[in-house]
User: Fold this.
Amino acid sequence: MAITAKQNHWTLDSVIGLDHTIAPDYFRSAPAQVAENFERLLSRDVFSEADAQFLYDWLLVRGVSPEFRQMLDRWLEDELKHYQGLRRCYRALSGVTYAEMDREAQARAQQRNIAPIEDLLVDEFSILLLLAYDEIGSTYSYRRDLAEFYRHFGKAIARIGQHLVRDEGQHFSNAAELILALYPERLKDVEATLAKFDVREKQLARTGSYHGTFFLDHAQEQARFPSDFNAITMQVIQARLGIAAMPSQERLTRLWQWKPAGCEFVPV
Ligand SMILES: [Fe+2]
Ligand SMILES: [Fe+2]
Assistant:
């Protein structure tokens, strides 16, 4: 069956330039502590996007179906665009130079370790489901970050946030479509496989071991999500695959509007 991954088309340079600056007014009018927290957030998110290249290379060595390969090529193009876009945002916000970011990216590459999750990547079905799991998590977490951080620093930065939300949502949808097209007989395994991802992510969060391999990269910030975040996103995945009802709108909204008690935004 021919299946073509969908891709949102946008060019980075038309949204934000390499030398983009944020007018001082935005820093003055942003709510207290928002700039500092946004800077900390970007210092992590920039590099998580770059991890996509590692995962792509790892998957290609391992071998993937032609349909998955077609999707991965578009996916990588998007993720590397996110990396470049977040570098521009991070530089504008913090003054950290591109050369400093290059050095940081190299240092992180030395520490990569896929071992803590490798046993989850047993077959293409599991890999696609893990991709869907990660991408739906990213969709809601960027949606929250757009509302809490990106929108306070001018049109270009806000538009980057909007593109991130849309692209990650499309990546989720593409992974789900491939599961439906290529592995319909595995739908019975979805619930148990997702449960394994959830358990592993919580283990990784406890041990603080971030492995820089793209998958389960939200393990490092479990405290930034409501306690039922995984349960709800897992239900969204199952609903997208036609094997569960969609969570209520109220529960979906809470995924990105939740804040810890007494906080105006989710601290980073
Ligand atoms: Fe991304
Ligand atoms: Fe993505």
In short: The chain has a mean pLDDT of 93.
